[in-house]
Queue: 3 jobs
Job 1
Amino acid sequence: MQVVVTGMGLASALGSTVESSWGHLLKGATGLQIHQPFPELSPRPLGLVYDAPSSIAALLFPTIDAALQDTDLDSLTPGTGVVIGSSRGSQSQWESAIRAHHGRGSVENDLLRLYGDSPASMVAQKLRVTGPALSPRAACATGLWAIAQGADLIRTGQCSQVIVGAVEAPITPLTLAGFAKMGAMATTGAYPFDRHREGLALGEGAVALVLESEALAQRRNAEIYGEVLGFGCTADGYHRSAPDRDQKVAIASLQQSLQRSHLQPTDIDYIHAHGTATELNDQAEASLVQRIFPASVAVSSTKGATGHTLGASGAIGAAFSLLSLQQQIVPPCVGLRDPAFDLYLPRAATPMKLRAALCLSFGFGGQNTALTLAAI
């Protein structure tokens, strides 16, 4: 069964809508700015959607509403599924609750209130749908995993429609301090695949996509962004944060995605790279692409524009890739000035014949994910 995307909502540092985010991306703009939201921590380049760090609800609910409006559905069926992931979840609220109660007694009630609020359950309650409500959590692999799980719910006949996506509100003192302690944080900006890259810049964001069978979408004359093909997921079993240098397991995830899509490496026209602008990730990912794909494939990372949105990053990449397929244009690798690798890395929006795109995410714990999308 063919699974297609018929609705999209997106909020990123580039803009709070699909149109504003995509328009600014094509112009090569960046949403990263130097911020100091917490006085105890140093200023950093961050990707905020609004003027101050957001909660997952503030990012997620408008994005869900936008996706449903975009798909032009009169109503959702009671069995509609929801698969919304987040690697950090309500961490910002947890930290705020602990700070508010510091030295003033028990924090248990506030923490228990937050415990059951997964992004999927929040959306299911808001929309009053009764199908599966899944909230995957797999570090930076979360967003692609959510899309793949939603597509499988349709292919296996469990749902006729599924709302999928991811949300992340990671601009918190603990997250910032943790990445800074690791030495992974940029000080001026994010420059994926650049010779002078200095690390990641955290960003916040949310994506919601409406998935349904192609037959159903055609019966109701819905606009289709693209088709969800195959997915590959493997784990290195090697290190909590560093990629395995022999890359055999990472290669397997890409091969799985291609095989399940019935495609060859030469069929991929565009790769939306994970491209965190860290030393190890970009080096490993560039090597991976060079080993499998022809030199002509276009590669770009959009994290120089949105920041690294952790669990939401794969879903944001998938949304941008769907827009690329629909409009036949490759977005620029924002932030790239002096390429460090022999890859085709467009630095300006580039019109191109696009049949299929591959989205990549690589998460802590050695989680390797690949999702193949196709033009309709």
Job 2
Amino acid sequence: MTSTTEHPPATLTLDPLGPGFGARVSGLDLASATDAELAAVRAALVDRKVLFFRGQDLDEDGQIALGWRLGELTPSHPVVEGVDEAHPEIYAIDSADNGFADVWHTDVTFMPRPPLGSILRAVTLPESGGDTSWADGQLAYDSLSRPVRELVDQLTAMHDGNREFGYYLAQRRGGKGNVWEGETVTRLVPAEHPVIRVHPETGRKGIFVNPGFTSHIVGVSDAESRAILDLLYAHLTKPEHIVRHRWRAGDVAMWDNRSTAHYANRDYGTARRVMHRITLRGDRPVGPAGPVTA
């Protein structure tokens, strides 16, 4: 992120969506924001975990420029090509090309270093439907009972992208994906991460498994794995842990991928829904017991 040492702190106007999770940011033009304002956005993102900005005027170039001011951008996706040759960082989520996200997930957890965060821009919206919800993994962890917290603190889980993207990599990309962390992706090797992730900036613990990519808990039986994951998924997605956003033209959402999961409603029939997403380079997840060793 651009240094702000020469700029005084900026104050954002936030409309909180819950006591500690989610907020709408008003009065800020992301395209012309100062370094100090974007530093405040970055701090608010860690604190509130998901932020919404109405009435923005960003195109592909503007979205990428914004991303680079907030962090280091990844390619669009480990497997899926960018929206076009000029914008390889943008992942187009297009319902006309089977671009749906109607399962709870955290972006790209099937890689050793999942993205730090995501910036999503509404491009084409249905007349109604297509809302997106986010779940707060930290709030969900805090509200677990102590015995369950002590259990899951010790566990690791496998995250596997083959179910969702293995066919795409093999059939549509000919077995050659994008360059991710300096290496061309030719196969999706499952990644092991702690079930509970310690946030690198705040030290808070949060649930870091998701139905989209987590295949199983390591070192327990299949039945135990299913039971533990089902418990965590049901708890993570309780209504009091969730905020929901109804999209409008010009909307931009940002979220901290290290502390949230999200779900996009697929309730708009044959209407088209197109969203453009960029992701910020992240680090290797660390749990209460430290990093997972291969």
Job 3
Amino acid sequence: MATLTPSGLHRSTNRIDEHEIVRQLNDALGATLVAALAGVKSRQQPNDWAKSGGGMPRPDAWNRLQFAHQIWTALQEEEGRDIARRWFIGGNPLLGESTPIMAIREDRHADVRRAAQAFIDGDVDE
């Protein structure tokens, strides 16, 4: 069972190209949800960020994308792709019934990490 320690998650994400991180999130969640969690208005921006040589998001959006990728990777490895996606878009009791997408957008990273860990550990129902 994975433990979502900030240092371990941060290390794994830092070894991946920035554009690849966005490509993986776009593939997993779709550009619309990636734009929502990053806090940007344009649904096209995540597609632009995913292109090699494309622009990169501003620092606050980039922090959200890195964090989302860390949580996505851990959930996907433990629970599988479909369940990880449903977790990201479903209301979560540990987040006040907010979705993890919106909690990440609101920079509630510690809350999201705890909710993801509880899910992996089986401490809450989906």
